[in-house]
Design brief:
Shape: globular
Structural class: alpha/beta
Number of strands: 5
Order of helices and strands: EHHEHEHEEH
Oligomer: single chain
Strand content: 15-25%
Low-confidence stretches: none
Number of helices: 5
């Protein structure tokens, strides 16, 4: 079974954003973060990671800016509430990150981080995490999904941008 959305991975990217799974609109459009309420594309432009706001269908252009994309659950789509443990492939994600060696992996939402890192919901905070994931520094970011708007803050995203442009290392 092919993934719902293809990985956008190349060796030595600055950051790989990792979501939980493709939403229904993203799956239908064949593009990451394509839902009408999703802030992803405007946020990565606003914090200076890309020089212009891209349409979701242009996701394959992100490596030119040192950015990659993937999900923890590659074979399913829809709301996160429909996900079950068997849908997640944390080991596959770990292998992809280890193979491509990005500087950071940034989880777009706590649910993705929980699934990948194997941690409980209340035990993680937004921001830079101690330790690494497959050799990459780890950021946990508030989800850009419109469904998670009540938890939104751009500050951890700005912290990621500062880390990516600074001299800090994971």
């Amino acid at each position: 079974m092919p993934p719902v959305l293809p990985d956008v991975l190349e060796p030595d990217l600055r950051v790989v954003f990792c979501g939980t799974q493709a939403g229904a609109v993203s799956a239908a459009r064949g593009a990451y973060y394509a839902g009408p309420g999703n802030k992803f594309w405007s946020v990565i432009h606003e914090i200076g990671l890309i020089p212009e706001r891209l349409a979701p269908e242009r996701f394959r252009e992100l490596p030119r800016y040192g950015i990659g994309l993937t999900d923890v659950a590659k074979l399913t789509s829809g709301p996160d509430s429909a996900l079950r443990g068997a849908h997640f492939d944390a080991e596959g994600l770990r292998a992809r990150i280890a193979a491509h060696r990005p500087r950071y992996v940034a989880f777009n939402g706590k649910r993705a981080a929980q699934a990948a890192l194997g941690v409980a919901a209340g035990s993680i905070a937004y921001g830079l995490q101690p330790g690494t994931f497959a050799g990459a520094g780890v950021f946990i970011l508030p989800s850009t999904s419109g469904a998670a708007a009540g938890f939104w803050s751009i500050e951890p995203w700005k912290d990621l941008a500062r880390a990516m442009t600074g001299t800090e290392t994971p």
